[in-house]
Amino acid sequence: MQQLMSYMRAAMERYDMIAEGDVVAVGVSGGKDSVALLCALAAMRRFYPKSFTLKAITLDPCFGNQNGDYSALAALCQELNVEYILERTNLYHVVFETRREKNPCALCAKLRRGMLHNAARQAGCNVIALGHHKDDAAQTALMNLFNGGNFTCFSPKSYLSRRELTMIRPLIFVPERHIEKVVKQEKLPVVKSACPADGVTERQEMGAIITQLGGKYENLPEKILHALQKGNISGW
Q1: Which residue ranges make up each domain of the chain?
Q2: Record: fold of 2-235
Q3: Which has more pLDDT, 140 or 197?
Q4: Considering the entire predicted model, what is its pTM?
């Protein structure tokens, strides 16, 4: 966990992610990345030079038109002294039953973003922290390149003027394998996704490609991030 927070602090300071007095909403899906981010930010409140308030927001997609069980996350937030907000949504119904999307991930992500923005504003937050890590960034850059011919990525920090929200990604320097190790060692609660598309996404396919190429080209995710930074691409 100490190493994880060291990675995070480097990203937070490089991109000036948190200002004094910020109220930060962590989007907690229940997956390993968001849970690790929540716990690390909660611990960093004790020593980070800029004081901030932390809240956790879970948007339940209600897969199968059933309420998800997030009691483990609620218990974790109580232990961390973090306000926990759980909102039930109609994401499953809209994406899988009404729209019947061939590519459900894109629509689901778009709808979820809007819902998270609304929930954060209603909770009095001015910052949203998302759990994208180094491997996510590398995969996104290559997906954009292969699909659209543009070498772009999500930004480490961006301001949504219409919402008056700042979006930050404190885990962008953290390798996914390190997050997996921390979650296992700290025995953090992870809520398994009930999404019908779980395990068959394009992002996972891209991750497999990067792993395969990594056998010939060492530290490939690191090199992709360095290229983003060197080219000052997407705010990197």
Answers
A1: 2-235
A2: Rossmann fold (3.40.50)
A3: 140
A4: 0.94
